[in-house]
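Minutes, project check-in
Item: structure for the 374-residue chain
Input as provided by the requester:
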Amino acid sequence: MKQIEECYQILKDPNGYVKRFKAESGRKVVGTFCSYAPEEIILAAGAHPFRLFGSGEKIRLAEAHLQSYCCSLVRGALEDALGGRLAFLDGVVFPHTCDSIQRLSDIWRLNVPACFHLDVVLPVKLDTDGARQYMIDVLKRFRGELGEKLGVTISDEELRAAIRTGNRIRAALTRIYDLKGERPEILKGSDLYALVRAAMIMDRTRAASLLEEVAGELERKGATEAAAGPKKRIFLSGGVCNQPDIYTIIEEAGGEVVGDDLCTGSRYFSGQIDEKADPVTAIADRYLERVVCPAKHRGLTDRADHLVRLVREKQAQGVIFFLLKFCDPHAFDYPYLKEALDRAGVPSMLLEVEDRLPADGQLRTRFEAFVEMI
C-alpha cells in the first residue's frame, strides 16, 4: 500500500522529513514529548508539532546531565539536542508527567537555549472537583504563552480547525485499529506501528488524509480477503514503543497483535474533541475523560479496569507488557495490572527493553513459549 510506504520513508529519517517540511511550508516546528502536549493548540498557532523519541545514537553528551538509570527516551532526546541534531526546532513543550521528563525540562532549559521552552503543568489527579477548571486554566495559559513565543494570536476559529484535523486523525486511527482487531490478517503489526508513529511526525493535514485512505482500503480489503491460518490474539500494554520489530517477532512466533494501550498507540488517539464547544474547554475535557497514563490518577482501579475491558473487547488471549527499562511510573503500575489480568484469567508476560531489543533468538524463544502456553 503506497500510503504505508510513505510512512516508512518518513520513519527512516524523521528529522530530515521535518526539516524539509519546515523549509517548504515556512512553518515553525515545536517538539513535544508526550500525548498530553496539546497538539491542537500548536497547530492553531500555525506551527508543526513533532513528537521527539531520540534517534538511538550512542549516549555520550547526555551522560554529563542524566544518570544512567534514566529511561532511554529521555537520555536519547537530550543526546540529540546536545549533539545538534534538533537544531531545526523553534521550541519544545514539556508536559509535566513523569519525574524524568520534569527534570529533562530543567536540563533542556539550561543547556539548549537555541529554541524556546514551555512547560505545561497539568493536574495529576483528574477526578477532583477542581481538576477540570485547573486543566482549562493551564491550557488557556499555554495558548497565550505559545502565541507570544511564536508572535501570533491564536483565535477560536483556528483552534476549531485544528480540532477538526485532530479528530480526523483520531477517527481514522480508531477505524484502522478496529479493523485490525476484527481481521488481524489484513494489516501487519509493523505497518500499524508505522501508521501511528508517522502520524506523530508528518504534516497533520496530510496525516488525516493518508489515514482515511488507508482505513478505506482496509475496509474494502477486509470484506474480500479470507482469514489466514489461526494465530493467538495478543494485546500490548505499556508506554513508548520504539521497536517495530517487536510486531514481526510476535507474528513469526504464532501471535497476532490485535490491540494495545501504549502511549505510542491507542492512548495517543483515544477520544474525540467536541467541535461545537468552547475549544480550550473541549481539549481539556478530552484529557480528563480519556484513559489515564501512570503519571495521572483517576480512581484506584481505573487503568486496570480499562486494560481488562480492552482485552475482552479485542478477544485477546494474552497480554505482553512492553516497558521501557527505568520507567518508574509503568513499573509501579505493572504489579497491580498483572493481578487484575490474573483475576480475569488472562495470561501475561513482561518484557523490559531499552533503546534496543534483546537478542533476536532469545526474544523469539520467549514469545514462542508464551504463545504456546496460551
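Outcome recorded: The CA atoms of residues 233 and 316 lie 5 Å apart.
No further action items on this chain.
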